[in-house]
């Protein structure tokens, strides 16, 4: 937004000393929430408690991301999930994953490649060195978390299968097992979940296939046993429980784009300047925080990925 | 001994309406809200508001179909409770969620149809809540009924606000539309019911049906005051 205030000369006697205005700000902050004081007072202890709960599972190498944002607790990450294959209720997913079998598991990698191969999950864990990546996750619904994943780059897997020169896009597919995933019985979604990336996006060093969380094997509600994580895009691009990866020529269809093409584009890069038609993307609520924080272009990963979209309109290619 | 002054229906309405708030406070205090507590509060207060609104629309059909007149007297309580939840919902949105950042709030309400219809529904409820007292009913005469028919506008606005807040597509009926659609269908049925010919047809059908029922079951249960 533009600043409408003009500079006007001010006598030094009129300027409020810093300590006074700081305490005044604190007071205004307190006054602002007066109507919700009881609510806030009750929320605050929870936030503090959550941070303490994170302590018993301290297996992330750092307590913050590279911008200094604290990592969310294991508790929050595993109990607040968008995984519509189970339920649309984010708090309900963790309670519904009991029937889901993550072993045996294979991932079929094929399409326009020289070495198509079906990998057992154990082989993927063995063949590719697993490393930790602490990434921000920005949901299209305008909430966000910081999550310590473990996994390996998608690029390393793609290099192994050798995409042909005709391969322009990568298509991903989630397992389809309605008997284990009750949400897949819902007739309102074109299951199975599918997603896609342009091949240069897929080869970017930030794009990983995550197999673990907080140093532990991944749990079903977070996409076990293997899921995509593309941190500069809205969370729905990071497809979970992958069974198939295909190299293709045409831009693949994606589930949310099929449902509402004007709302969920193929690119879905985090962008505070391009709103969802029904809500703003300018700010977000970080889980564990009460006030909103501004959303960063490319979710703060512009330095690594902005070049992928050089010369492209980010408004037209939302 | 004085007769217990409340009917079972009255008790049920008051218990339902206050249990929503009590459960909210209980979950807040015990840390049982989701990891996104403010959104949780917004969703729950919004759902209570629209549920109570729908229940207030149910009263007239109950009277027409079952010749049960007591619900007509409970519309005010249902409507006021709906307004109470809508007010809490708006306060949470403006204060806890947006920290009373007015310029941003106004901009978003204007730009986003989802917020605009919700806010219009809330604004329209205000004069209805204010004039819900008997004194206003007398003072406004015939206009009171006309004014309160604004609820036929409020309910569809609230439905749009609800379904547009979900990741779904109203036109193709895909995505997260199941629950809002149930509300939408119920609202549509209740509104269609109020079209005069429909209402007359339902009333005469119900009278004919009741004529077939043995007489002793037909005794009105409501005491005359």
Descriptive overview:
The complex is a heterodimer of chains A (318) and B (225). With 318 residues, chain A is an alpha+beta fold. Helices cover 21% and strands 20% of the residues of chain A. The longest helix of chain A has 18 residues, at 37-54. Chain B has one domain (9-212).
Strand order of the largest sheet of chain B: 1-2
Structural class of chain B: mainly alpha
Instruction: Write the CATH architecture name of the largest domain in chain A.
Output: Alpha-Beta Complex
Strand percent estimate of chain A: 15-25%
User: Which shape of chain B, going by the Cα principal axes?
Assistant: globular
Beta-strand proportion of chain B: under 5%
Beta strands of chain B, count = 2
Radius of gyration of chain A: 22 Å
The CATH first-level class of the largest domain in chain A comes to Alpha Beta
- Global mean pLDDT of chain B: 91
Overall 3D form of chain A: globular
Q: How many angstroms separate the termini of chain A?
A: 21 Å
CATH topology call of the largest domain in chain A: Sulfite Oxidase, Chain A, domain 2
**Which two chains form the greatest contact, residue counts included?**
A-B, 45 and 39 residues
How many strand segments of chain A?
12
Keywords:
heterodimer; A: 2 domains; 7-stranded mixed β-sheet; 5-stranded mixed β-sheet; 12 strands; globular; disordered N terminus; B: mainly alpha
Break the fold down into its secondary structure elements and pairings:
The complex is a heterodimer of chains A (318) and B (225).
Chain A: H1 18-32, H2 37-54, H3 74-77, E1 106-111, E2 117-120, H4 121-127, E3 131-138, E4 143-153, H5 154-161, E5 169-174, E6 194-198, H6 199-203, E7 208-213, E8 216-217, E9 227-229, E10 242-248, H7 255-259, E11 283-286, E12 293-294, H8 302-305
Parallel strand pairs in A: 1-10, 4-11
Antiparallel strand pairs in A: 1-2, 3-4, 4-7, 5-6, 5-10, 7-8, 7-9, 11-12
Chain B: H1 8-29, H2 37-66, H3 70-97, H4 102-111, H5 113-130, H6 134-140, H7 142-148, H8 151-164, E1 168-169, E2 174-175, H9 178-193, H10 196-212
Helix pairs in contact in B: 1-2, 1-3, 2-3, 2-8, 2-9, 2-10, 3-5, 4-5, 5-8, 6-7, 8-9
């Amino acid at each position: 937004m533009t600043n409408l205030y003009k500079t006007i000369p001010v006598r030094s006697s009129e300027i409020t000393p810093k300590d006074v205005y700081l305490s005044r700000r604190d007071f205004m902050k307190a006054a602002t929430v007066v109507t919700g004081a009881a609510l806030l007072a009750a929320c605050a202890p929870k936030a503090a408690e959550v941070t303490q709960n994170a302590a018993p599972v301290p297996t992330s190498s750092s307590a913050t991301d590279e911008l200094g944002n604290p990592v969310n607790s294991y508790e929050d990450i595993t109990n607040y999930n968008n995984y519509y294959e189970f339920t649309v209720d984010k708090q309900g997913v963790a309670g519904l994953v009991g029937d889901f079998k993550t072993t045996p598991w294979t991932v079929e990698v094929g399409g326009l490649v020289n070495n198509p191969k079906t990998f057992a999950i154990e082989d993927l864990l063995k063949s590719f060195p697993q490393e930790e990546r602490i990434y921000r996750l920005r949901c299209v619904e305008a909430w966000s978390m910081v999550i310590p994943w473990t996994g390996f780059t998608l690029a390393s897997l793609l290099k192994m299968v050798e995409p042909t020169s005709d391969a322009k896009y990568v298509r991903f597919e989630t397992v389809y097992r309605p008997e284990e995933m009750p949400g897949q019985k819902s007739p309102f979604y074109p299951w199975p979940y599918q997603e896609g990336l342009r091949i240069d996006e897929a080869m970017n060093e930030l794009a990983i296939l995550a197999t673990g969380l907080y140093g532990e094997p991944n749990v079903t509600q977070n996409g076990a046993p293997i899921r995509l994580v593309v941190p500069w895009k809205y969370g729905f691009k990071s497809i979970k429980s992958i069974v198939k990866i295909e190299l293709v020529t045409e831009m693949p269809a994606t589930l949310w784009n099929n449902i509402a093409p004007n709302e969920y584009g193929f690119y879905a890069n985090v962008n505070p300047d391009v709103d969802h038609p029904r809500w703003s993307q300018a700010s977000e609520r970080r889980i564990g925080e009460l006030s909103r924080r501004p959303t960063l272009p490319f979710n703060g990963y512009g330095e690594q990925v902005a070049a992928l979209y050089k010369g492209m309109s980010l408004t037209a290619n939302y | 001994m004085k007769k217990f002054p409340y009917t079972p229906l009255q008790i049920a309405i008051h218990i339902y309406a206050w249990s929503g708030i009590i459960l909210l406070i209980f979950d807040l205090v015990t840390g049982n809200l989701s990891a996104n507590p403010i959104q949780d509060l917004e969703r729950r207060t919004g759902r209570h508001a629209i549920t109570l609104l729908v229940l207030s629309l149910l009263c007239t059909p109950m009277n027409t179909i079952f010749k049960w007149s007591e619900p007509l007297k409970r519309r005010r309580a249902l409507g006021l409770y709906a307004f109470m939840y809508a007010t809490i919902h708006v306060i949470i949105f403006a204060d806890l969620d947006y920290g009373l950042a007015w310029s941003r709030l106004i901009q978003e309400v204007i730009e986003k149809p989802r917020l605009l219809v919700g806010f219009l529904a809330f604004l329209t409820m205000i004069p209805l809540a204010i004039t819900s007292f008997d004194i206003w009913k007398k003072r406004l005469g015939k206009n009171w009924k006309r004014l309160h028919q604004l609820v036929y506008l409020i309910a569809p606005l609230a439905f749009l606000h609800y379904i547009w807040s979900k990741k779904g597509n109203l036109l193709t009926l895909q995505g997260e539309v199941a629950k809002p659609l149930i509300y939408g269908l119920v609202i549509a049925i209740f509104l269609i019911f109020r079209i005069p010919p429909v209402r007359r047809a339902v009333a005469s059908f119900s009278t004919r049906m009741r004529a077939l029922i043995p007489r002793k079951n037909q005794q009105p249960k409501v005491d005359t005051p």
